[in-house]
Design a protein that fits this description.
Elements lengths: L13 H16 L4 H10 L1 H49 L1 H13 L17 H4 L5 E3 L24 H6 L7 E5 L6 H15 L15 E6 L4 H6 L5 H11 L9 H7 L3 E6 L7 H17 L4 E6 L1 H5 L6 E6 L4 H20 L4 H19 L2 H4 L5 H13 L7 H19 L8 H18 L4 E2 H13 L7 H11 L3 E5 L2 E4 L2 H14 L4 H4 L8 H8 L5 H7 L7 H13 L5 H14 L5 H17 L2 E4 L2 E3 L6 H14 L27 H14 L4 E4 L21 E3 L6 E3 L8 H10 L22 H27 L8 H32 L7 E2 L3 E4 L1
Parallel strand pairs: 2-5, 2-6, 3-4, 4-5, 13-15
Antiparallel strand pairs: 1-6, 7-9, 8-9, 10-11, 11-16, 12-16, 13-14
Helix pairs in contact: 2-3, 4-7, 13-14, 13-16, 16-17, 17-18, 18-19, 18-21, 21-23, 23-25, 25-27, 27-28, 31-32
């Protein structure tokens, strides 16, 4: 037995002694053994009270949560059951795989709006696709012409669409891609679809265009215009379901697309925002697109349109990108890839012999294009290039211009190839076109791309009567579709032309044939008719169109641009109308509207390059100096790139008002060469631009009789001017000023700046400081030179050193004199006391 003393039992607190008779029965009622409670309370009264309170709190919380669970149990269970059901259905249905398979099978063919139906073989898009160049732009700056090179053709570095889709800074930015007809917008979207399906785990073959977590949705807006206009509650999900139903695809699990859109997993591509003729209907479509962007803002949207169709109804809060024309390198790559794919498909094998044949055929086409500038100009457009390659392979000779190319293409489509093979046709290509042309004109006048079969049959009944055939209108439409692919039955009972370009061309043919060109005069302000008007002018007299464009005292920039395009491609124009347009262009370079002034200046520059005079072989020379307005186009684009190349004596970034048609003078030689390089970049027809070489124009001085005699132009390989007349020397007053400052100065007496000063931001104050610095340097080195020359204490063995040092210092002082003179000339020019004399004369030759 231990002898250690035991601790005394602490006394029970008085307040517990008072409530003890009440606590014991309560605890007993709660089911806690009385003995245990009595013992614990006796030993640890305070701890026991805390445990009691915690116990009661726990009982209360559990009871409260039980009541909450009773309220939540049923809806929560229902929600979880629904989610499990949807997840199970999605997994078991494997719809994601089905949808991606559909996208790949639907868009893998290289079908440039029906051209694939012409040949025996269908090419895959991957075989011939050439990545398009995409650059930021504005709808006003973008060109709507299929063959006109935009004024902002190239930047220092061009990009593909993938660069914009994957850029971190543009992750939440919606994009609009604009481009002229046939520039490859739809094909580009199909390429994006294939790229996204290829990066999916189901397709491991390509992963070069990662866009993580984005599922492609491609819709053609023309298919949904009617629904958008008829149903106020028509949504993007409805459009997707209608699209899948049209292509007889399996119905997705309930809510499947809504879930993808809610999670922001989609890249929604909407093609053809401009393919709605009615302005009100187009406005509704634009509003609908804007609403879908707002409703599903977590997703990316990519919309395509022609520039003129987008200008009148732009989308808010989007980045506008422009498809750039093909470069020469892209043209060559496409032609070689296209011929190789054709040969592989036709021979059903890929060996050196097949590749040699394809390469020879491609080179033959490229050589033909290089010797025909009018056709080479068309190759900047992917659709026209595809047509050229198709005509070259299946039709033989290439036509001489765009309108002739369309006509040749229609003939090839409508039976020329079958005729060449000896097949007997029930009606010739010319007869078929004569029937389809009124149908195209009718569709253009109604502003539609699709026409019901009954209505189409009614339109062609009359022209069919003039054909020696017993085929009725319904059978005729079926035969045309089966034979050519130029007219397609897009869905049951609904026809459309394979490409809007063919509809526009055939409509122009119909109006010319029926001598109804006056109808186009009322449509000169409508973007829907723009291409038809241009094509009509290339086949007929463009005078009425030009009169309509220029009837206002201050025509809109779009009207002037259309007039310029029509005049450029016109079959004929009344001489007085052409004089009126020329006068407008000359006066328009001073226009107060920057957009109108830019359009006119760019047109004058393009006209200048077309009208250069032949010098020798494939070399042409200009007969006048570049004007201020034309040079301003170059300056504006360079300033967008961050380069400032205006003459140093200018007080601003623009030429002085009233000087638009005067020669640009005072240009640095380096800037003149940069201007030539810029023109070469813009020209995709194989021409290179440069400054004249020394003595190159000596035998053809008569070409330059119209130039001012007191100016000169920079030479390509010389740091000097070639004077038009007698070389102009420095004014006597300026010579006296130099002589008074530096009596021993030696310098050139020419009025030309001796070197590129690159004083872009020059101001008089800054210039005066520079001149003072030069004065100090000249005085210092002149004193040093005199000291070396006059020092006779140097021993004989150092005479050679003294002579070398003297020559070195003299050369340096002469250089300082010339540089100071340049600054003095520049100062006089800024003050308006001395006129500049350095201009730009262009020579172009084949690259």
């Amino acid at each position: 037995m231990s002898n250690e003393p035991t601790s005394p039992t602490p006394p029970t607190p008085p307040f517990l002694q008072r409530i003890w008779p009440t606590v014991i029965p309560v605890l007993a009622a709660l089911g806690i053994p009385t003995g245990a409670v009595t013992y614990y309370l006796t030993k640890h009264p305070l701890q026991s009270l805390a445990v009691f309170l915690l116990y009661e709190l726990g009982v209360f919380v559990i009871g409260f949560l039980g009541k909450v669970w009773g309220k939540l149990e049923e809806p929560l269970a229902e929600h979880i059951a629904t989610w499990l059901k949807q997840w199970t259905i999605t997994v078991l249905s494997r719809y994601h795989r089905q949808y991606y398979n559909y996208l790949r099978y639907q868009h893998r063919d290289f079908d440039v709006k029906g051209l694939s139906t012409l040949g025996t073989y269908t090419l895959e898009l991957d075989q011939v696709f050439v990545e398009l160049r995409i650059d930021p732009s504005t709808p006003q700056a973008a060109s709507g012409s299929p063959i006109q090179v935009p004024h902002t053709l190239l930047v220092e570095k061009t990009h593909s669409l993938w660069d914009y889709l994957t850029a971190t800074s543009l992750r939440q930015q919606h994009l609009v891609v604009i481009g002229p007809p046939g520039s490859g917008k739809t094909t580009l979207l199909k390429h994006v679809v294939l790229g996204l399906t290829a990066q999916h785990k189901l397709f491991h073959r390509r992963k070069q265009h990662p866009l993580p977590g984005k599922m492609p949705i491609l819709l053609f807006l023309r298919d949904h215009v009617q629904s958008i206009n008829e149903y106020a509650d028509y949504t993007l999900v409805n459009a997707i379901q209608d699209h899948l139903t049209h292509w007889k695809q399996a119905t997705p699990p309930e809510g499947w697309f809504q879930r993808q859109l809610r999670r922001g997993r989609c890249l929604v591509m909407l093609d053809g925002l401009d393919e709605v003729a009615d302005p009100q209907a187009r406005r509704k479509v634009v509003d609908w697109v804007e609403q879908q962007m707002s409703s599903w803002s977590r997703n990316r949207f990519l919309v395509t349109s022609r520039p003129f169709g987008y200008r009148s109804n732009p989308l808010p809060n989007v980045a506008v990108l422009e498809v750039r024309p093909f470069t020469t390198e892209q043209v060559e790559r496409f032609v070689h890839q296209w011929y190789l794919a054709i040969e592989i498909m036709s021979k059903l094998k890929d060996d050196p012999g097949v590749r040699m044949r394809a390469s020879n055929d491609a080179d033959a086409l490229l050589q033909r294009l290089r010797t025909t500038p009018e056709i080479f100009d068309l190759t900047v457009n992917p659709l026209l290039l595809t047509m050229i390659a198709t005509v070259h392979r299946y039709g033989g000779e290439l036509p001489g211009n765009r309108c002739a190319l369309y006509a040749e293409m229609c003939e090839v489509f409508l039976g020329k190839r079958q005729q060449a093979r000896g097949q007997n046709l029930e009606f010739t290509p010319v007869q078929t076109q004569a029937v389809l042309a009124p149908l195209a004109a009718h569709m253009m006048s109604r502003g539609i791309r699709d026409i019901a079969c009954d209505e189409a049959q009614h339109i062609i009944e009359e022209p069919l009567k003039w054909m020696t055939t017993s085929v009725n209108s319904a059978a005729f439409l079926q035969k045309v579709e089966q034979m050519s692919g130029l007219l397609l039955e897009r869905e049951n009972g609904v026809y459309s032309f394979a490409h809007l370009t063919f509809q526009e061309f055939l409509a122009a043919c119909s109006l010319k044939e029926k001598q109804q060109g006056q109808l186009l005069v009322t449509h000169v302000g409508e973007t829907w008719w723009r291409e038809t008007i241009r094509l009509y002018c290339s086949m007929a007299d463009a005078t009425p169109i030009l009169e309509a464009c220029l009837q206002e005292e201050h025509p809109q920039a779009s009207a002037i641009e259309l007039a310029i395009d029509c005049d450029t491609e016109a079959h004929t124009v009344r001489p007085d109308m052409r004089v009126r347009l020329d006068t407008l262009l000359k006066e328009g370079v001073e226009d107060t509207d920057p957009e109108r002034q830019h359009v006119i200046a760019n047109a004058l520059l393009a006209r200048r390059l077309r009208r250069m005079v032949h010098l020798k072989e494939e070399t042409f020379v200009d007969t006048s100096l570049i004007t201020c307005a034309e040079y301003q186009v170059f300056l504006d684009e360079m300033r967008e790139r961050g380069s400032y190349m205006q003459p140093d004596h200018w007080a601003s970034y623009r030429f002085t008002r009233g000087w638009g048609n005067r020669p640009i003078l005072g240009v640095r030689r380096a800037d003149a060469k940069a201007f030539c390089s810029w023109l070469t970049e813009r020209d995709l027809a194989g021409w290179s631009y440069r400054l004249p070489k020394k003595g190159e124009l000596a035998q053809d001085a008569a070409l330059l009789r119209g130039l001012p005699t007191d100016v000169g132009y920079w030479l390509n390989d010389e740091k000097e001017l070639s004077w038009v007349g007698t070389p102009v020397t420095l004014p006597e007053l300026l010579l006296q000023e130099m002589s008074s400052l530096f009596p021993d100065a030696r310098f050139s007496r020419s009025l030309t700046l001796a070197r590129d000063l690159d004083l872009t931001q020059a101001r008089l104050a800054m210039l005066n400081v520079a001149m003072v610095v030069y004065q100090v340097c000249i005085i210092y080195y002149s004193v040093n030179l005199k000291y070396v020359s006059s020092n006779r204490t140097i021993q004989r063995r150092f005479l050679r050193y003294r002579s070398d040092r003297e020559k070195e210092l003299q050369s340096f002082v002469d250089l300082l004199h010339e540089m100071y003179l340049d600054l003095l000339i520049l100062k006089k020019r800024i003050l308006g006391e001395l006129q500049p004399c350095e201009g730009i004369l262009l020579v172009k030759e084949r690259k």
